[in-house]
Design brief:
The chain has 4 helices and 6 strands; from the N terminus they run E-E-H-E-E-H-H-E-E-H.
Amino acid sequence: MEILWKIENLKKIYEVKSEFAKKKVVAIDGVSFEIYKGETFGIIGESGSGKTTLGKAIIRLIEPTEGKIFFRNTDISEMKETHLRPLRKKFQIIFQDPYKSLNPRIKMLLPKDLTTVTSGSREPPRTTPTQSLKNSS
């Protein structure tokens, strides 16, 4: 199977300066994975865990501190912006807001209260996915 993306030991460390000290904040710490052609790949994690930073670093909207990024066997880690810009047309990151991304008419089973939301019913659902997410957090 063809590897579309190969990420090796990707790191992003920010230096935060204050009046009194210089501090390092590790946003991405040694992430490695492969994404194959035809595969669906998602990154999930808590708020502030580095998901957005990882996505931006992979497509080089921000520069990683270290690591290698391969797209279709081409190392884009050190690629100049002029060569990278046309490639970015082939990249897409989807940032998902769970409160806006769920259709309230889709049938789903909610894990906390096991309330079923039905689709196509003439009766309004007891709860919508959005309401349930708000209630569960």
